[in-house]
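Colleagues,

For the teaching module next term, I've prepared a clean inverse folding example: a structure given as tokens, and then the sequence designed for it. I'd like students to try predicting residues themselves before seeing the answer, so please don't circulate the second half yet.
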């Protein structure tokens, strides 16, 4: 490992983004590194917590696509601006918490191509990108696969419309087959948008995965090549970074599953993680960003605890001279 590119995406989270950036500045990687932040909400004032404070110094900020604001797509765009021989993904609620934290990653890089935590999710078991490091060759090989399969396209939620499945699951289809289907204009717009997806947001494979009941059991992808004569496949979506992990394992890259201690939220043990810690030195505050964007159906007591955690890390990580400014920006974002 000669240089590390740390990449992240930010979406309307002024406080969490400030915490993450401040943490990487307070506990810098011990070899040459760069921090690249993709602003997935370019018309929103949240990014000012970085651009209008001391935290912006040395951070490369690129503009995301408001039509495609997923953090996977943000990773893809940030990666395009990187030049490290290793890439580390993070999220705005995932960051280092002590000096010397990087030594474990640097040591493991000598023998592995991908280093990160295995995390069970509703979409399956996979190496979660937050705190995950990738040798650049892993991503480049995935890009070569994408280029070789560019005639196969991802069509979100089109199963029922294309009559490949009774439910509105996703479809991976060959362009020639779609031409015969007379795809409507709005669907074609979605196809064109998803053609931009890079390895971190990739959704295509050739497994026939049409069961909404069992897809949380997925642990990999079996088929990365289409079956002869078959022109469309039903798909359940992958989370950001999930496809890339499965691709790396299937194509012979050496993947190290790091220690990942889960700290459960009191009163929600086994159901709602408060934090997880990789090597004990890199924390991920699960669901942290809902405290600033949208809590959805999350229990109010859980949201309250998440907000308490946010302010705890804010006090620990953010420089005193920037705190008032960031809180003012956060108030403006409400």
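(Answer key — instructors only)
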């Amino acid at each position: 490992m000669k240089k590390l590119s740390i990449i992240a995406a930010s979406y309307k989270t002024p406080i969490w983004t400030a915490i993450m950036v401040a943490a990487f500045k307070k506990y810098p990687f011990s070899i040459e590194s760069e921090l690249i932040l993709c602003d997935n909400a370019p018309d929103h004032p949240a990014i000012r917590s970085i651009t209008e404070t001391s935290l912006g110094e040395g951070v490369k900020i690129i503009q995301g696509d408001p039509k495609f604001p997923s953090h996977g797509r943000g990773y893809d765009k940030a990666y395009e601006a990187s030049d490290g021989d290793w890439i580390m993904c993070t999220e705005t609620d995932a960051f280092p918490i002590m000096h010397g934290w990087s030594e474990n990653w640097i040591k493991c890089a000598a023998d592995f191509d991908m280093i990160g935590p295995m995390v069970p999710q509703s979409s399956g078991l996979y190496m979660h990108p937050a705190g995950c490091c990738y040798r650049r060759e892993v991503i480049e090989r995935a890009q070569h696969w994408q280029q070789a399969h560019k005639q196969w396209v991802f069509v979100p939620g089109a199963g029922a419309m294309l009559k490949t499945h009774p439910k509105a699951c996703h479809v991976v289809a060959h362009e020639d087959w779609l031409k015969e289907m007379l795809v409507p204009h709005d669907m074609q717009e979605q196809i064109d948008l998803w053609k931009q997806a890079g390895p971190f947001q990739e959704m295509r494979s050739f497994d026939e995965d049409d069961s909404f009941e069992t897809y949380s059991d997925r642990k990999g992808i079996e088929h990365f090549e289409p079956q002869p004569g078959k022109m469309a496949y039903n798909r359940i979506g992958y989370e950001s970074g999930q496809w890339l992990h499965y691709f790396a394992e299937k194509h012979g890259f050496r993947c190290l599953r790091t220690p990942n201690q889960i700290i459960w939220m009191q009163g929600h043990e086994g159901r709602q993680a408060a934090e997880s810690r990789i090597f004990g030195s890199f924390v991920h505050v699960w669901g942290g960003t809902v405290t600033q964007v949208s809590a959805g159906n999350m229990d109010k007591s859980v949201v309250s605890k998440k907000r308490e955690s946010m302010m705890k890390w804010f006090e620990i990580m953010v420089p005193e001279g920037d705190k008032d400014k960031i809180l003012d920006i956060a108030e403006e974002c409400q």
